[in-house]
């Protein structure tokens, strides 16, 4: 289960259990001033979906729709923690 909270000027994403092991990472700390925008994947057009889709795994797990860890995308390096990409949010940094 992923827990999202706000501490001061940061967005904190904590991974637990299987997600923490699969992603090879326990938490992410993202300063608000680094967040460009947030979008729901289902609402992105096909071009944007293609850009964010994981291409090469750099550390983590990818089995079908289950994606955890660091991957390269059309936009560069990305971190995923999702069981279904279509039902996820994207945080552009």
Describe this protein's structure.
The chain contains 2 helices and 8 strands; from the N terminus they run ββαββαββββ. The chain is α+β, with helices and mostly antiparallel strands. The longest helix has 7 residues, at 17-23. The protein has helices at 17-23, 46-52; strands at 2-7, 10-15, 27-31, 37-40, 56-63, 66-73, 76-82, 89-92. The strands form 3 sheets. Strands 1-2-3 form a 3-stranded antiparallel sheet. Strands 5-6-7 form a 3-stranded antiparallel sheet. It has one domain (2-92). The radius of gyration is 13 Å and the shape is globular.
List keywords for this structure.
93 residues, alpha+beta, three-stranded antiparallel sheet, globular
- The gyration radius over C-alpha positions equals 13 Å
Shape: globular
Q: Please state roughly what percent of the residues sit in beta strands, choosing from under 5%, 5-15%, 15-25%, 25-35%, 35-45% or over 45%.
A: over 45%
Tally of helical segments: 2
Kindly state the mean pLDDT as a whole number?
Answer: 92
* Tally of structural domains: 1
Helix content: 10-25%
Extended strand count: 8
Q: How is the main sheet built?
A: 3 strands, antiparallel
Instruction: Give the N-to-C terminal Cα separation.
Output: 23 Å
What structural class do helix, strand and pairing data support? alpha+beta
Element-by-element helix/strand order: EEHEEHEEEE
Return residue spans where pLDDT drops below 50 for at least 5 consecutive residues: none
Strand line-up of the largest beta sheet: 1-2-3
């Amino acid at each position: 289960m992923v827990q999202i909270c706000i501490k001061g000027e940061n967005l904190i994403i904590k991974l637990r259990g299987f997600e923490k092991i699969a992603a090879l990472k326990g938490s992410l700390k993202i300063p608000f001033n680094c967040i460009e925008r947030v979008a729901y994947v289902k609402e992105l057009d096909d071009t944007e979906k293609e850009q964010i889709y994981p291409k090469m795994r750099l550390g983590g797990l990818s089995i079908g729709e289950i994606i955890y860890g660091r991957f390269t995308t059309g936009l560069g390096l990305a971190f995923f923690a999702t069981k279904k990409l279509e039902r996820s949010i994207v945080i552009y940094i």
